[in-house]
Amino acid sequence: MKYWIPLILAVIFEALAALSLKTSTNTENHLYTALYAILFIISLGMFYIASKGIPLSIGYAIWAGLGLSIVSIIGIFVFKEEISLMKIVFLLMIIIGVVGLKLVSK
């Protein structure tokens, strides 16, 4: 459990970084670009810590998959991105895969 907390933090910071990058492109405020860099560095640092106790194949899949899912869901609600049944189905498949990876890991 000790390494899962940094992994979850890495996912959260990665999603926040992606959102700040999107905000930067929408507003052209370079403070959001700097925030993106800071948040992504923190995310990579947390992932580094997590990778000491979680196999890379599982940790990276969870980091990327959950980050993608969170950003997609926020994109739908905050940035009014298109939503479709297939998009929901595939996001659910990613989340199910991430949960499955967690369940089979030691």
From TrEMBL:
Cellular component terms per the entry's GO annotation? plasma membrane
Q: Which residues cross the membrane?
A: 33-51, 58-79, 85-104
Matching Pfam families: Multi_Drug_Res
Assigned keywords, A-Z: Cell membrane, Membrane, Transmembrane, Transmembrane helix, Transport
Q: Which Gene3D superfamilies match?
A: 1.10.3730.20
The answer to whether the entry has keyword Glycoprotein is: no
Record-level Gene Ontology MF annotations:
transmembrane transporter activity
Where does the UniProt annotation locate this protein? Cell membrane
Q: Which InterPro entries does the record cross-reference, listed alphabetically? A: EmrE-like, Small_drug/metabolite_transptr, Small_multidrug_res
The record describes its membrane topology as:
Multi-pass membrane protein
Q: What family is reported?
A: Belongs to the drug/metabolite transporter (DMT) superfamily. Small multidrug resistance (SMR) (TC 2.A.7.1) family.
Give the protein name, as stated in the record: Multidrug efflux SMR transporter
Q: Which organism is it from?
A: Helicobacter cappadocius
